[in-house]
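Why should sequence recovery work at all? Because a backbone constrains its sequence more than one might expect. Tight turns favour small or flexible residues, buried strands favour hydrophobic ones, and helices have their own preferences. The token representation captures these environments compactly. In the example below, the structure is given first.
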């Protein structure tokens, strides 16, 4: 799948700094690739729905990073003067990851649920007999 350029991302309203964009865009591409079962691997240029989907996934991941304070873990509480942070642990961390996965899947379904290629819906995961 062709990658979304930073310029295209910004033109779609994205605001993640360019230094962070590359990694977040790669993750977004992997999410889309997994949910479409690789059906977009040879598509070039990206159709509008795919570009918008990737841009929204990039923004969602950036928001997750902001909530985790850049540590990759979700912050449960924070104090300022004494510089103290408490992170979500165990079950709560698993719940946060599950919630992010569900949100990512919802974004992909919203943008790509009605899209097809070669007569096959992009998100189709069934078996034809």
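From this structural description, the recovered sequence reads:
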């Amino acid at each position: 799948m062709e990658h979304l350029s930073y310029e295209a991302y910004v033109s779609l309203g994205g605001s993640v700094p360019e230094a962070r964009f590359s990694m977040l865009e790669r993750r977004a591409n992997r999410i889309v690739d997994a949910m479409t079962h690789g059906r977009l691997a040879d598509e070039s240029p990206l159709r509008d729905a795919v570009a918008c989907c990737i841009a929204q996934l990039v923004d969602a991941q950036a928001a997750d990073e902001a909530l985790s304070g850049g540590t990759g873990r979700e912050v449960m509480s924070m104090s300022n003067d004494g510089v103290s942070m408490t992170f979500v642990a165990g079950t709560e961390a698993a719940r946060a990851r599950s919630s992010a996965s569900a949100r990512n899947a919802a974004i992909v379904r919203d943008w790509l649920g009605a899209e097809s290629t070669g007569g096959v819906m992009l998100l189709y995961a069934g078996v034809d007999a």
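A few observations help interpret the result. The chain has four helices and four strands.
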